[in-house]
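JOB MANIFEST
job_type = single_chain_structure
chain_count = 1
residues = 403
[input]
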Amino acid sequence: MGDDRGQRNVSANRTLAIVTISHMMQHIFIGTSVLYPLIRDELNLSYTEFGAAVALSSMVGGLFQLIPSIISRRIARHIILGVGNVLLSIGTFLTGLSRSVFDFLGARVVSNIGTAPTHPMGTAIISTKFEDKQIGWALGVHYGLAYIGNIVGPILMTFLAVAFNWRISLFVFAIPPLIVGLTMAWYLNESKKITVNTEGSTLKSDVIAILKTKGVLSILLAQVFIAGAIDIVMITTYTPMFLTDQLKLDDFGRSVFFTIELTGGVLGPLVLGRIGAKRGYMNTAIVSTVFAVTSVVLLSAYPSANMILAIHLFIVGFFCFSFTTLVQSHLVQVTQKSSRDLTVGIYFTILFSVVSLWTAVVGYIIDYFNSFIPAFAFMGFLGAVGIITLVTQIKKINFLTDY
């Protein structure tokens, strides 16, 4: 046997599993938003202050999205991903120690830097292990199962927060990403295919190739607006607060309704990812976005929580959480293998940057009007602009039915 066979080959499915577990750590972190009402109250912060802290930390994390793609040309991707999990663990622990808005901001910055390698490195690793026709399915599984963290996190965090307090809850949830990060560095080290970048490409040549790829710039432009309406950060940041402050639900009620929304977020990428593989990822993304934006705007119609709201929140999660998966599947499919991590890095750098802006703006709107209704209307406006931009630009370059 050759040298490569002398090493234990990590199969595609096993690679998908460990990278998905790593991704799940990020979504458990996102699930800490169920604790936001408790954190905001104890730190005595306004919506504007809290939204600004979340926005600024998200912006820093967004700006770091490109760095893993750049340094992965010299450092193995799985090592970068493992270090990211360790930083996420440290940031989560520090959040539990927060005593002021500045403590909270600093801890969130560390956490968001830790999550930065998740998308570009995870997508690049998976794309090296699956053929092009399987990538959409693999990424759908990757995102759908990772979103389980959105469900498990809030449920267990709420339980620990009620039994003890929100700080203890965060201390406990700082442990899993540490374990996952150390495990990844060891486990994936035995597969050379995912630890070595493609030879013959440079950062400059990859950027040029990405910019020349048909449709990429149109997608990046449209997401500037769409992100403000349906991005997972927007939804998970303000849904718990909407349930608590607008609809007056207690901790248990908030957790139940929020979990229902997140369950939709698990199933959406799995179902729509499979549909996208057959019908076209961008076709599916456009239709999904229309339903997503509409469902967000209609949340303003509820004066109180009821069974219809539960179904409605499931729909919100189903469609809103699917957009990123569908768009990524398309971008990975139309770009060169050597530049996929850079493509995803650029996508998420812009995404997190604009989301941080919209998060702060929406927080200010809620404070100014003392109501979530104008905020949902504003998010709907952004979504409408994004949809129109996406459809118009795609038709102009005539690739709507190409993939």
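[summary]
The chain has 21 helices and no strands.
Residues 1-9, 399-403 have pLDDT under 50 and may be disordered.
exit_status = 0
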